Amino acid sequence: MLEHVISSTILSGIMIFNVINLAALHTWLERKQSAVMQDRIGANRAHIGPFRLLGLFHPLADAIKMFFKEDFVPPSGHRVLHTLAPFLSMVFALITFAAIPFGDVLRIGDMEIGLQPANLNIGVLYILAMLSMVVYGVVLAGYSSNNNYAFLGGLRASAQMISYEVTLGLTIMGLVMIYGTLNLQEMIRWQGRLLFGFLPAWGVFMQPLGFLLFLAAGIAETKRIPYDIPEAESEIIGYFTEYSGMKFGMYFFTDYVETILLACMSTALFFGGWQVPFLRSGGFHWGGTLVLGLPHLLVTLMQIGSFTAKVLAFCWFFMLIRWTLPRFRYDQLMKVGWKMMLPLSLANLLATAVILVMVGN
Amino acid sequence: MDITELNKTEGVRDTATREADALETKEMMLNMGPSHPAMHGIIRLILKLDGEVVKDCEVHIGYLHRAFEKMCEEGGYLQVIPYTDRLNYVSPLINNVGYCMAVEKLFGIKTTERCDYIRVIMSELSRITDHLTCVGASAMEVGAFTVFLYMIKAREYLWELIEEVTGARLTISYTRVGGLKSDLPAGFAEKCRTRLKEVRKVNQEVHTLLTKNRIFIDRMKGIGTISQEDAVAYSVTGPFLRATGVDYDVRKDNPYLIYNRLDFDVPVGEYGDNFDRYLVRMEEMEQSIRIVEQCLDQMPKGPVAVDMEGRAIPAEFMVDEAKMGRTGGLLEVQAVVDPTLEGGTRANFNAVQTEEKRAILPPKEDTYGNIEGLMQHFKLVMYGHGIRPPKGDTYQAVEGANGELGFYIVSDGTDRPYRVRVRPPCFTILAAFPLTCIGWTVSDIIPTFGSVNMIGGELDR
C-alpha cells in the first residue's frame, strides 16, 4: 500500500513537472514556430549575462513579469470569484493529466509500476468531467469581472465548450465501443495489435472520421484559433479582459496546458499512446516472431519517448493551425458544432456500431 | 431620419436577428473604443446589443482632431505640405500630390512630364502600401495573423523604396508646389520592378491563404453590406463604393496628371459586402502595379542634358552644338552636395521642377552660387514673402487609397491660404458605417470596420 502511494506521488510529481515545464516551453515554441511561419526571427532578446539561448529565457522573463505586475480587481467586480476563477481553470486543467498514461508497466525487481499517475478504470470519463470543469473558471471570470466584454466572452465560452463537448464525447464513444473499455491504459494496450498483420491498430485507422471530428472539437475546447471566440482579442478582448498579472498568466498558462492535454488525449486515443509499432515487451516483433530483443528498461524508455514525441508533434500541428486560419464567428461556430459536427459524429457512431455488430457476428 | 429607421430599408437580415426578436430580451450597451484593439484608439462606437446582435450603433469621431485646416491658415503654402503627410499616414504621398496640385491649379502652373510620372508612380506605390495595410490588418482582426505579417513585409519593400526616393518613410513631404523635392535616385526603375514582383508574390500567397478559405469567406461574404443607393447617397467613394458596383474612380472619371495615358481597370464589386471590398482592394493593388510598370516604361529619361546654366537643352539646339563640336559643355554635370539635398541638384532639377519662378525654389547650386538664385530662394522662404497664388479658389480631387481625397483652397492673394478644406474619404464612409453594422453581430463589426480602413489622421484632421 505504502509503495503504491509513494509511486503514485512520484509519478504525479513527474507528470506535473513535465506538463508545467512543457507549457512554459510551449510559449517559446509557439513564438518560434509563428516566427518561422511569418518570416520573422522570433523572441531572442531576453538574456542572462551574455547567454541568450535562442530566446529560451523568455518564458522565465514572462513569469517574472507577471508575478510583479499589479494584481487588479475591478472595483465593481466580485473579489472572491474574480480571484477564484483562474485557479479553477488551472487546477482542473492540471489534474486531468492524472489519467494520462505515458508508458506501460515499469518493473523494478518485483515491483510493477504502471506509468500513469492514477490508473482509473473510467479514465476517459474522468478526463471529460475535468475538462468540462475548466469552463467554470472561464464563465466565472466573465461573470465576476462586471465588464461587458468579459461577460460576452464568458457567455461565448460556456456555449462553445458545452456544444463541443458533446461532439468530443461522441467521437470518443466510437473508440470506447471498439476498445470495449473506458480505461485509457487498456485502450492503449489494445492499440498494440496489428491490422492485416502490418498496420498498427491505432485509433486513427479504426476511426478516421472520428479522429478528425475529435481534433476539431478538441481544438474548440482549447479555445485556440480558429475557435478562439471567447478570447477573440480583436473583437471582445476576451473573458480575461479584467485580469492582470499572474491571474492573467494562469489563464494564459491554462490555454497551453489544455493544448498539451489535447495532444496527450489525441495521442492516447488515436495514435497508440506510448505504443511503438511492432515493439512489444521483449523487443520488436514481426509476424509473431521476435526480430530484435531489447532489455525491459530500454523498451520502457522507448515507449515513453514515443509518447512524448507524438505529443510534441500534435502540439506543433496545433500551432500550424493556429497561425494559418482566421477565426469563426460565434453563430457560425455554433452552426458548425450542432449542424455539422454533431450529426457527423452521430453517423460515425452509428456506422461503428453497425460494423462492430456485423464483424462480431 | 433615425439610424434604425434607415436600416429598415436594408434587405438582408441576419437570421439571428429574427430569432432574437421572438424572445423577450434586454438590450446591453457596449462601449466599443476608443480603447479597443480594433478601433485604432481614435474612434468610439456606442452599440446597443441584443445578445450578440447589434441593434443600434452610434459613431463618435474626433479623437484625433488636430486642427489641420486651421493650422494650414497659419503658415505659408509650403508649410502645409508637411501637415498633409499626417492626413492619411499610410499613403502620405497621395496627400502631398493632392495638395500641391490644388495650389498649382490656383497658379495655373503646368508641371513637367517627368514630374507627373513620378507623382503617379509614388501615388500608386502609396496606394499599394495603403491597401496592403488595410487588407492585412483586417485579416489580422479576423484572426489570420500570418497574413498581416506577410503584407507588412510586402509593405516594407515598398516603404524602403519610398524611403530611398523621399528620404523618409512616413513624413515624407515629397512634392513641392510646381514639382518635387528631388528626382528619382539612380537605378530606381530596376529596383522598383523587382520590389513589385515581390509584392505580387506576397499577394498571390495571400490569395491562397484567404480568398478560397472557407472560414474567411464565411466571415466576409454577405457581411456589412451597403446598397449602391445608400453608398451614393452618403457620397461614399473609393473601394467602399466600388465594391457596391459603382465604377467611380477619380483617376478615370476626372483624370489628372497623366492617368489618361495609362491603361488600367477599375475593379468593381457586386454586393457591397466585406468580401467584395477585400477583392476590390486586392485587384486594385494589381492594377496599381500595372500602372507603375507602365509609368516606368513611358517616363521621360532622368537627368537630362543640360547646358552650363543648368537649363535643359532642346534637341535641335543640341544637334547644332554637336555639329560645331561643342559637346564638352553639354555633359551631365552634377554638383556634389549634402545627402539631404540629393536629387535637388541642377542636373535633376529641370526634369522635375516647373519653370514657374513664383512657386519653385531654385536648384541648390543657384541658391548657393549666384545672387539671382539666392534672391529667388529668399523671396519664397522669407517671412512676409513666400508663395502667393493669385486670388481665387479651387478644388482639386485625387483618388486617395480610401476614395476621393479633395483639397479646396481659397487664396486671398497673400502668402497664406485663406482656407484649406479637405474632403476626407473616411468621413463619408463612417457616416454610412451604422448602415453596415446594424443587424449583424459584434464580431462582424470588426471585419466591416477593417474594410472601411479608417485613418484617424484624415478623418478627424
Q: How would you concisely characterize the structure shown here?
A:
By secondary structure, chain A is mostly helical. Chain A is built from eleven helices and seven strands. Chain B is mainly α.
Polypeptide structure, described:
The complex is a heterodimer of chains A (361) and B (461). By secondary structure, chain A is mainly α. Chain A has one domain (72-360). Chain A is 63% helix and 6% strand. In chain A, the strands form 3 sheets. Chain A has a 3-stranded antiparallel sheet with strand order 5-6-7, with no helix packed on it. Chain A has a two-stranded antiparallel ribbon with strand order 1-2. Chain A has a two-stranded antiparallel ribbon with strand order 3-4. In chain A, β1 and β2 form a beta hairpin. In chain A, α3 packs parallel to α9 and α9 (245-270) crosses α10 (296-322). Chain A is globular and about 70 Å long. Chain B has 461 residues and is mainly α. Chain B has 2 domains: 77-300 and 388-429, Orthogonal Bundle (Cytochrome-c3 Hydrogenase, chain B), CATH 1.10.645.10; 315-381, no CATH class. Chain B contains 20 helices and 8 strands. Chain B has helices at residues 3-8, 15-22, 68-72, 77-85, 92-107, 113-141, 145-166, 188-211, 214-220, 228-233, 239-242, 250-253, 274-298, 315-323, 346-352, 364-369, 371-381, 425-437, 442-452, 456-460; strands at residues 28-32, 44-50, 53-60, 175-176, 179-180, 392-399, 404-411, 417-423. Chain B has a 3-stranded antiparallel sheet with strand order 1-2-3. A 3-stranded antiparallel sheet of chain B has the order 6-7-8. The longest helix of chain B has 29 residues, at 113-141. The relative contact order of chain B is 0.18. The model of chain B is unreliable at 1-13, 303-308 and 327-336 (pLDDT under 50).
